[in-house]
Amino acid sequence: MPVFGLFSDTAVGGLTHGDVESWGVFDQVRFAVSERLGLTAGVRYSDERSARDASASSFCPLAMYPDIPLAGPDFFGPGCVRNTSSPAGDSWDSLTWKANAEFAVSPGLFTYAGVTTGFKSGGLNPASIGIPNYSPEKVMNYETGVKYFPADAPVNISAALYYMDYSDIQGYGFIGVQGVTTNASGAAIYGGEFEGQWRPTKRDRLTGFLTYTHATYTKYLNAVDQQLNVIYPDISGNTLPHAPRLTMRLDYAHDFRLANGGTFTPKISAYWQSKSYLRDVNLPIDEVDAYAKTNFNLAYEAPGAKWSAQAFVYNLEDRRVRNYALTALGHYFSDYDPPRTYGVRIAYRY
After folding, report:
1. 182 CB contacts (<8 Å, ≥6 apart)?
2. Which residues have CB under 8 Å from 231's CB, separation 6+?
3. What's the CA gap between 260 and 262, in Å, rounded?
4. Percentage of residues in the chain with pLDDT exceeding 70?
5. In whole angstroms, what is the distance from residue 280 CA to residue 290 CA?
6. Which range has the worst mean pLDDT, 71-85, 188-202, 282-296?
7. How does DSSP classify residue 340?
8. For residue 2, what pLDDT is reported?
9. DSSP readout, 206-220?
10. What are phi and psi of 282, to 5 degrees?
C-alpha cells in the first residue's frame, strides 16, 4: 500500500498512552429434565473502560518531505496538519444471557433450540477526527438445529437455522488517514447451514458443507463514502461486507496403507462462494465476483507416526481474489488472498 505521509501522535509530556480495563462475572447451569431433555441457562455481566491521554499529532505529506523521518509533533512545515486533543475516556457495561434446550430423539439423533445475546465493547475514535466514540455492538441470536451421529453408520450430519438481530453494529473505515469506527443502527442476518461426513469405506472420507446467508442492514443512515466524498442518506437494505449468499466446500481423501506400515493420503478440497461486497455502500467497485478455489495435498505418515511429510498446492486455479477494501485520501485500496501457493512440510515428533 502506498504511504501518503508521515504521521506522529505524541502525548503531552511523553508517548501516547491509553488504558483499557475490562472485567466480568458469569455463570452457567445445565439441568437434566429427563434422560432425553436437558436445559441450559447462563448469564454474564461485563464492564469495560477505555481512557486516552491528551495528545498532539502531526501529518506531513511525503511528497514534500521524502527523506525526513518525523520524530514527533514538533516537526511542522508547509503542507503539514497539526491536531491537539484533550484527555478522553468512556465506559460500557452489559448483561448478556443464554437459554438452550437439547432433546435426544434417539441415541444418535439430537435436536436443540436456543436464544443467546452478545456484546462487543465500544471504543475511542481518534481525537483529531472529531467523531464521537463508538457504541457497543449488541446481538440477539436465535438458533435451532439437528445433529445425527449414529454409532453404527458411516455418516455424520448436522444442520442449523438461525436469525441474528444486531443493534449498533460496528463498521470500520478511514477519514483522511485515521481509522474510524462508527455504528450503523441495525442489521439482520438469517440463514442455514448443513455439514456432513461420509465414510463409504474405512479408507475413504468425504466431507463438506453448504451455507445460505442473508445479511442486510435494517437501518443505516448517513453512510460516508470517503473515496468519493459522498454521504448516502440511507443504505438500509444493503448487504453487509464479506457476506456471500452461498458458500460450499467438498473434501475427499483416501488412505493408502503401505507395506512398511506407513500411510499415504492424497486429499482434494474444492470451495465455491457467490458474489459478495467489500464495503457497506455496495458500489460496483466493491463487488467480488463468485469464485472457486481448489487445494490439493499429499501426505505421508511413517510407521509409528514419528515423522511425516506433506506436499501441497493451494489455490490451484491461481485466482486473484480481493478480501478487503478501504478508502483513504480519496484512494481505494484492496488486499488479496494469496495466489497459487505450493510447498513441502516435514515434521518429526519426539
Report:
1. 131, 134, 170, 171, 173, 224
2. 222, 223, 224, 225
3. 6
4. 83
5. 18
6. 71-85
7. S
8. 39
9. EEEEEEEEEEEEEE-
10. 55, 40
User: Measuring CA to CA, how many Å separate 195 from each of 164, 172, 209, 239, 247?
Assistant: 20, 32, 4, 24, 12
Single-letter amino acid code for the residue at 283 = L
Contact yes or no for 213/191 (Cβ under 8 A): yes
Distance of CA 321 to the CA centre of its chain: 17
Cell of 135: 457504541
Tell how strand 256-257 and strand 263-273 pair up. antiparallel
3-state secondary structure of 128: helix
Question: Residue 63, by phi and psi: left (phi above 0), alpha (psi -120 to 50) or beta?
Answer: alpha
Mean pLDDT, the chain, rounded, equals 85
Cβ neighbours for 152, distance < 8 A, ≥ 6 positions apart: none
Q: Residue 209 and residue 249: Cα distance in Å, rounded? A: 5
Q: What is the mean pLDDT of residues 228-233?
A: 82
DSSP 154: S
78: left (phi over 0), alpha (psi -120 to 50) or beta: beta
Q: Which of 281, 291, 272, 295 is nearest to 336 (CA)?
A: 291
Helix (H) or strand (E) holding 43: strand 37-52
User: What is the b/e burial string over 271-293, where b = at least 16 CB atoms within 10 angstroms of the residue's CB?
Assistant: bbbeebbbbbbbbeebebeebeb
- DSSP label at residue 201: S
Cell of 12: 503531552
Concatenated DSSP letters of 264-289: EEEEEEEEEE--EESSTT--GGGEE-
Q: Which of 98, 113, 112, 192 is nearest to 148 (CA)?
A: 112
Three-class SS state of 63: coil
